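Quick look at the format.
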Amino acid sequence: MQPRISMITLGVRDLEASVRFYEHGLGLPRMDSPPEVAFFTLNGSWLALYGREALAEDAGIAPDGSGFAGIAIAHNVKSEPAVDEVMEQAAAAGARLVRAPRKVFWGGYSGYFADPDGYLWEVAHNPLFWIGPKDEDA
């Protein structure tokens, strides 16, 4: 297997609301797609939003998951102020702030928000590790 993730698909309860959150709230660029799914381009991969029940059916599992799903999606940024900016943008878009940004044990600065379906996003600055374009802040 090649070391890459090509797409992350989130099973969502309300596709319209989730599309508004990611496209208009967070500003992710949406691709043309059929009405039952939404695709967003990321740097080197894609984010897909699909009905939770339909995604569970596709995988052959029950759709009634509850509690912590054991996953968090990370968005690394170039600076501590950029962490604060992304967290503020997410909150303005309707995210629930789970943990305010702060200095963390591994030497960086990070916070967590939950999207409309409760998926956790960590927004982090790691002073020793940057994987984005040199001129990009967020």
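Next, a different chain entirely:
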Amino acid sequence: MEGEYEVCIREGERVYLLLEDGKDYLIRVEKDKVFGTHLGGIAFNEIIGKRFGELVLTTSGRKAFLLQPGIVDNLFHMKRRTQIVYPKDLGFIVLMLDVKEGDRVIDVGLGSGAMCGALARLVGDGGKVYAYERREEFIKVAVENLSIWGVLERVEIKNKDIKDGFEEENIDALFLDVPQPWDYLEVCWRALRGGGRIGIVSPTTPQVVAVLEKLKTLPFIQVEVWESLFRKYKPNPIAFRPYDRMVAHTTYMIFARKVFSENP
């Protein structure tokens, strides 16, 4: 029977609120409180007990749909202190790194926790993400975000510089998001298992060239450089066309795999 096993929204639950005009919010439901929007207020008591997928009306009679927040919703509404890896790049990166249940992954440049959260979601309870970040103020924000997303227990955060290497070895995949990644490729090689994958993001071409030059001196193969360009379309069957603006260049993505040789 439809809805028989559906769980109703409870007090304290996070809800992705989508208004009829497309404006969205990510809220936490609190009893007896009202959430104000440009289309009118929404009483949280009206949300409690409803199912995801249902709607409520604002005080001005406008529709608001109640949805479960997904990973992209979390990323766009997260608290941040740094630029995040954009979802169009993030999805490709985790596929190219082949991150899966039970993997052990290193995330360098934790920032606000966007990529770390995506990796932790994929490794499952049997895996682990080791996140390295030098700045304590970023770690504080990341911990809050990872806790909200329910994946903090899958992450081990280390407040340290990686110039002297990693505490882990035989890592399945490594993600590197730092200003000068070429300075750390040797220690990354040491941390990876044979055949392990590395992904590096760099926003400018001089950075990419420096990374490629360094990769040539180390036992890495299958070196690839990618850029993702996505264009969103207006879902109007009568006037179907692209949106007037798009997120174009965000970063270059460099990938490689570790092999063994006499070097380093």
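The two ends are 62 Å apart (CA to CA).

See the schema section for token definitions.
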